[in-house]
Amino acid sequence: MPRSVSGVEMRKRQAAHIEAPPQAPGQPRPNNCCLCWCGCCKCLWSEDRMERRERQTCTKMDSIEAADERQPGLDELLSWARSFEMMLRQLEGREFFRDFLRSEYSEDNLLFWLACDELKKETDPTVVEEKSRIIYEDYVSILSPKEVSLDSRVREGINQTLAEPSNLMYEEAQFQIYTLMHRDSFPRFLNSSVYRDLLANRRRASLDT
Question: Which strand (E) or helix (H) includes residue 173?
């Protein structure tokens, strides 16, 4: 049966721990704080806990600041309503549109369009072959884990170009997805709470300045 620790003995252990000499740099911290309940500033367990809390606080503040930095202005928001192309070409526009598409389970359409757009910029045959294969496996193949709204004719055309991939092999498929998002998803985005709330907040902010 384990021997119980008296209150006097516990206080002696805590006092010895508090008065212990500082740990040398680079040495591992001893695990001698299992009985500590005082929460004193010299307690190694408390120090670790405070350090973790500080790191978490810094991470949260960084996230908040990053979110503030990516908020578009009123003129920018209004420009999105006038031009789907302009919204797609702006990072903030793509992020908010992607959030909306995710709520409709159609985020893969935008990801496919972006992947095809990046492929168009490639000129190295080795990179083109690798990226085209990844796009096919991720979005086009019948075994692909993601769902993209391509018709069978376009899929078959892609299959016929697999032997000799090029940076433009998905051009027709990309245009089909662009048209689908423009005609179907984009009007719903402009009428969604995601966009309307953002626009209302920016209008209020502009009136306060």
Answer: helix 171-180
Element (H, E) at 85: helix 84-89
d(CA 70, CA 162): 39
Biggest distance spanned by C-alpha atoms of the chain: 83
For 56-99, how does the pLDDT look when each residue is reduced to its tens digit (9 = 90+)?
Answer: 444 433 433 334 456 788 999 999 999 999 999 999 999 999 99
Q: Give the separation between CA 169 and CA 127, rounded to whole angstroms.
A: 14
φ, ψ of residue 63 in degrees (nearest 5): -65, -40
Residue 164 one-letter amino acid: E
Residues in the chain: 209
Predicted confidence at residue 208, as pLDDT, reads 73
